Amino acid sequence: MLLPLLIAALALQDAPPPHPATPQQFEGRRSAFVQGTLNVAAGERATLKLNPDGTYDLVRVDRIQVGDVLPPANGSRDLPNDAPPGTIRFSLHARRDVGSILKVENGQDQGLKYGGFIVRYVGGQARPPAETSVCTVPAGMASFEHWPEPVIQVVIGGLQRSDDATPVCPPHVE
Question: How much helix, strand and coil, in percent to the nearest 5, is found in the chain?
């Protein structure tokens, strides 16, 4: 008697949002979007576009230089957000003198909250992904995450809307 009730309850529960066909990737690029999780490789910028159903599609992956992720110089009037309307861009690069930088540009009309994991390169070895703290990115703004050591990949997931008008940063994760 209990089994038919459980089966009926499972059939009536809300289905999780579907993800676009995956993996989404571009030939000659290492970054990819798989079932709602974005893997951004060092030296690349991945652009996602929000679909009407709330899912995202990977629409572009570009090779970049370290200058593409650096914040504007003090006193500069340059705007650091060049994301096309309706998109978000994640760019990762590293250089010995600046460390590793993830630039997140939000071209959407809503704020962005997400979770992140980094893959470090230590002692000639790639380490397993480790959780990292990341800030929310208000609509039309950009944010910058920094690590002093080489990061070869950032794994981004849990993309969701944020109503924050200014970036909100959680406590640092070690």
Answer: 10, 45, 45
48-102 pLDDT, tens digit each: 999 898 889 999 999 999 999 988 877 676 778 899 999 999 999 998 888 999 9
Distance CA 94, CA 151 (A): 7
Instruction: Name residue, tokens 């500069």.
Output: 76
Write the pLDDT tens digit of every residue in 90-143.
999 998 888 999 999 999 999 999 999 999 988 888 899 999 999 999 999 999
d(C-alpha 97, C-alpha 138), whole Å: 29
CA–CA separation, 41 vs 55, rounded Å? Answer: 21
Contact yes or no for 57/24 (Cβ under 8 A): yes
E-assigned strands of 42-170? 44-50, 56-63, 87-95, 99-106, 111-122, 125-126, 130-132, 142-147, 151-162
> In angstroms, what is the C-alpha Rg of the chain?
18
Which alpha helices (DSSP H) does the chain contain, by range?
2-12
CA distance 102 to 104: 6
